[in-house]
Amino acid sequence: MTVESVKPEAQIYAESELREPPVAGGGVPLLGHGWKLVRDPLAFMAGLRAHGDVVRLKLGPKTVYAVTTPELTGALALSTDFKIDGPLWESLEGLLGKEGVATANGPRHRRQRRTIQPAFRLDAIPGYGPIMEEEAHALTVRWRPGETIDCTSESFRVAVRIAARCLLRGDYMDERAERLCVALATVFRGMYRRMVIPAGPLYRLPLPPNRKFNRALADLHALVDEIVAERRASGQKPDDLLTALLEAKDENGEPIGEQEIHDQVVAILTPGSETVASTIMWLLQVLTEHPEHADRVAAEVESVTGGRPVAFEDVRALRYTNNVVVEAMRLRPAVWILTRRAVTDTELGGYRIPAGADIIYSPYAIQRDPQSYADNLRFDPDRWLPERAKEVPKYAMNPFSVGNRKCPSDHFSMAQLTLITAAVAAKYRFEQVSGSNDATRVGITLRPHNLLLKPVPR
Ligand code: HEM
């Protein structure tokens, strides 16, 4: 799967032609649609298209606009009338910093994207191959037949290690990657809680969970400072993302400030680890739930490698494995909800959107929509064969988004996810053990509640 940025084929509407989006049904007095969004957010988002292409939701006293069609989510992501903002981003900013690429807008964002982009370019990815390979195989060596794999911690561990070792290279990284893992897992759990239950003062009380969260957040920031300080002290300038950040200049050609360097490292490491970790958990769940597809992956790996350990260079040839990854991302997208804010009075699909309006859409709903996918809930990797993939409507499968906020890491992520899937499926079959719960846990990302697996050697 490739994801291209394209210009929207915008239709021009006269002001008099603009319509008010309908209010979605099912709201209740005072709470509006909020209770449904909290109770079962995935079903709620997936049901909205029946109410219109753009619908208004009442969340308490606030009106939020939801976009429900692939075409209009593409138009939203590609239009300059909308910026990154809204409750999701405000809560992330408060905790992770205001000066990183994920939350910046306008000229600062464009400059920051230019700084980080080279590290993620297609031709930079083979440079990370040896680390990705090493980490993928390390997983299969760590796992012992008969022992239980805690997929949450294992997936976080490998995701953080790959991001940290590839992008912030250095011998010092091994021990730090472990600390980063622990800190990030706690921070993400706490952040989601703070977002869905915005009980501000409660989180300031010296209760054990708050203390644990604050310690993890402080450690995350301290770790980033240590990584930056150590790199500076080493006097080394390897060709990596950290060097690019340390050497970056602002709009006036001046070195960027310490806070921005810090926030940039945080803004790259945090989304990078949570999304990849969640996707690895789903891939392990898929290999367990669909042994027939796991067997096909193992057979493909065998046919490509002839039995030697799978290598980074094999990734391009692992077409079926890649399609398993894409199909897992379609049905279980790590990033299930995205928000924007209108910077001006504007429109989407002929519906009036006022300046300042918050807009949400759900890649989960878009990627499961029966209007876009035949047999929409069936796990079918072959729907990504070239002759079938062309039937998929434009923007109906964009797990990395499109436009100027598109994830910079699509090639980086797909390479590691394909490699990890190939390495683990070639060596093991998996069974869920007692106590495992693979139901979907809705947080900042989607992932299984608590996936516990037993690896059985092939
Ligand atoms: C399965 C893996 C991943 C998925 C599904 C994913 C998905 C996304 C999506 C959908 C966005 C756009 C958000 C929006 O439109 O509001 C995004 C942005 C971003 N992602 Fe990823 N991502 C993944 C992995 C990574 C990794 C590994 C990194 C870094 C190491 C990363 C760094 C970022 C950054 C920095 C942004 C902000 C870009 C900007 O605003 O210009 N992501 N990601």
UniProtKB/TrEMBL annotation:
<dbReference type="Pfam" id="PF00067">
    <property type="entry name" value="p450"/>
</dbReference>
<comment type="similarity">
    <text>Belongs to the cytochrome P450 family.</text>
</comment>
<keyword id="KW-0503">Monooxygenase</keyword>
<dbReference type="InterPro" id="IPR050196">
    <property type="entry name" value="Cytochrome_P450_Monoox"/>
</dbReference>
<keyword id="KW-0408">Iron</keyword>
<dbReference type="InterPro" id="IPR002401">
    <property type="entry name" value="Cyt_P450_E_grp-I"/>
</dbReference>
<keyword id="KW-0349">Heme</keyword>
<protein>
    <submittedName>
        <fullName>Cytochrome P450</fullName>
    </submittedName>
</protein>
<dbReference type="InterPro" id="IPR001128">
    <property type="entry name" value="Cyt_P450"/>
</dbReference>
<keyword id="KW-0560">Oxidoreductase</keyword>
<keyword id="KW-0479">Metal-binding</keyword>
<dbReference type="InterPro" id="IPR036396">
    <property type="entry name" value="Cyt_P450_sf"/>
</dbReference>
